[in-house]
Amino acid sequence: MINLDNPAVVMEVRNLSKRFPVGGVLGKQQVHALNDVSFTIKEGEVVALVGESGSGKSTTARLIARLMEPTSGQIFFKGQDILKAEPRGASLSYRNKVQMIFQDPFSSLNPVHTIGHHIARPLLLHHKVKWRKDREARINELLAKVGLNPPAEVARKFPYQLSGGQRQRIAIARALAVDPEIILADEPISMLDVSIRIGVLNLMAQLKKDYGIGYLYITHDIASARYIGDKTMVMYAGHTVEGAESSELMEHPAHPYTQLLLSAVPNPHTLQQPTRMEARGEIPSLIDMPPGCPFAARCPHVKPICREVMPSVTNLSSDHWVRCHLFGSDNSAAQPAA
Amino acid sequence: MSSSSVAPSPLRSSARPSNEPLLSVQDLCVEYRTPRGPVRAVDHVSFSIAHGEVFGLAGESGSGKSTIAHAIMRILHPPAVITGGHVNFSGADVLDMEDEELSRFRWHDVSMVFQSAMNALNPVMTIGDQICDVIQRHLKLSKSEAMDRAAHLLDLVGIERSRLKSFPHQLSGGMRQRAVIAIALSLNPPLMIMDEPTTALDVVVQKEILQQISDLKNKMGFSILFITHDMSLMVEFSDRIGIMYAGEIVETAASHEVFNNPQHPYTRGLMSSFPSLIGPKVKLTGIPGSPPDMGNPPSGCRFHPRCDKVFGVCPQQRTVLREVAPSHRAACHLYDTIGLTPRTERGTV
Known about the structure:
heterodimer, A: alpha/beta, Rossmann fold, 12 strands, 30% helix, globular, B: alpha/beta, 4-stranded antiparallel sheet, 29% helix
């Protein structure tokens, strides 16, 4: 089912939910890791997903990568419902197009294999090149593309001979090997040294420009979401609570949680006087969550309805939506101060 | 050793008036003796911390900032060896202290908050017992008196008193870190060393905890040696900053000065390495290359292979921290001609 209104949509996620049973085989409790998450990624678009740990960001990426099966919901890739497709056969062509980069470049590479071997694997598995000679040329091309020079020398090295930033570039080259259309990047820079983070982000942006790759960029660093993300979505306790064009979201945050998050980010650019942050408390337990808005317990603007009904999506403008009772058509409450 | 630090009063109301720095580190050198040969992790590092001041040490992993903290506390273990320098605390040299003096110095004079609160707490002891443990080790108090004081400390850091009976696994990450801070406050030391105190925490919890530390600092007047790799946090939280690269301090100044007017090319690169939340979107450049292998550091200025301003003398001669503006020092050959007295002499390589 192609989204006819906008043919450039590559990936669409609809009402995705994931629950994990806890407490053993007979345990009746469930962790609500992800609830009713929907979004689209267009060709050459970076969608940033920000939130605290445990908010469901990585679960979203893992579901899309089909490392786990969702409890409910649909994932469309170019109009095709990929969850309906046969798990094994279809997954090869799907994984061809949707690749993942993991957080820890120290554990995502096999220490006993050379860099060349790491890049050769996807080329072989996905039948990308026929001849050995072509394969080497392709490996060199990929390594040069991610800024590792001289490529032939790098290909002979082992992971321990490379720094964290170089390893993450290898992970990107490996993802790139199969000509993906979507890359799921799960905190790709959070384990890297500060001085080389920007280099990796710039590389991702360059690949987006050169090949039209769309990204799901998962991060807890909201400033980096603004830097690379075309759109940003904020997650809280397994729900997406707000989404907008990145600058719009950061300049006009609507949801009280987004406002809290932004006021907590250390930002010397704004600063002579650091802002004080008022709300308190931590993310609620995701086990058998009470009804209503998950942020109600911490929200400075909480109303009785918040503890009973999960707010639905309200569109504030064509590309800015929020899930908060302060904005629904059903009430006339004042908007929270920005 | 100063006698004023003995004061067992639960709360010190203000900093001791003095012009002497509380802590001064001079030419500190630390080596790791590895099978590949000695690795100099800290190389002639000098800085001082005034009463009530927050001094930040910023740098990437492997730049030597945690090694400095461990050297000051004298908790380095082989293969790490302090090979030179002085650490003066209120007139006494920490590096010359014998065991007895040292056990007083730790916790009474300087306490430490480690990065991972989970590992810093004993999983089979309650929070209350762990705080009492420290108090009773250093002060002659009965268990119930110590427990009273522990309850008071939990009030200070914003944990309910009922949590005295909780075990670490029953607390959230943020609460565990608060408990560790309560322990560090338990003897009311004039200096706290905080080694990446909030790195493992989410931003909202991080902000809450740092706000609380700031409030406590203003109330109790202790100084802080604050260590982090997060430059934004560093600038926001510290009064003065030392930027470390490859075992050396390459620039030191007031934090707003480092942020607004960085002089060393490495600091400049760092400042264009983290994106902003506001203002126009600008393309950042970061710093090319990677931090050096300390077992085989580059010759001359350690930063020269990554530097965009590199010139003739850089690969040949070590740098010296020089005053480039009032209270602003940088170690870079660009400033060799300024002609102010070098603060630390380093030999040529």
